[in-house]
Amino acid sequence: MCTDYTDLNKACPKDAYPLPNIDRLVDGAAGHKFLTFLDAYSGYNQIRMHPRDEDKTTFVTESANYCYQVMPFGLKNAGATYQRIMDKIFSDQIEKNIEVYVDDMVVKSADIPSHVADLAEAFNALRRHQMRLNPDKCVFGISEGKFLGFMLSSRGIEANPDKCQTIIDMKSPSNLKEVQKIAG
Length: 184
Prior knowledge:
By secondary structure, the protein is an alpha+beta fold. Helices cover 33% and strands 19% of the residues. A hairpin with a 2-residue loop joins β7 (144-147) and β8 (150-153). The protein is flat.
């Protein structure tokens, strides 16, 4: 279901809660020997709407009117709300053994015993707040992987092969106009 919340978004004040700096998150996660990438299952839909705000999400169908009891996509402040909740859930772990950007998380550790303990701490925090993960998008205990579009490994931040392949596959320019197009 996709609902247009343009009018509601215009009427709502902007939530100034900041999203984390991506460079800081990537730098904080790079250089660790063991990484686990976690993804929340239908992240926004795990956040309960405040009962007095449910009516604001009402939408009309041919058969009835409905409203969301969980946070739908498309609300102006959904990202800030979600990040605030994740910062609360992982307040004891952020920058220590986990980095979180909205519904993307990376648990980072120096060795296997630490990684097991760090994962247990993350799972306990998620369980306490009844947050679920998408097992199809979670990858456990690896030495390198993608986080927020960057390749992370124990060596640091590396070139993302997907982005490199785009450049490798690019056709070489054959005239001045094509060179100018590439150069901008």
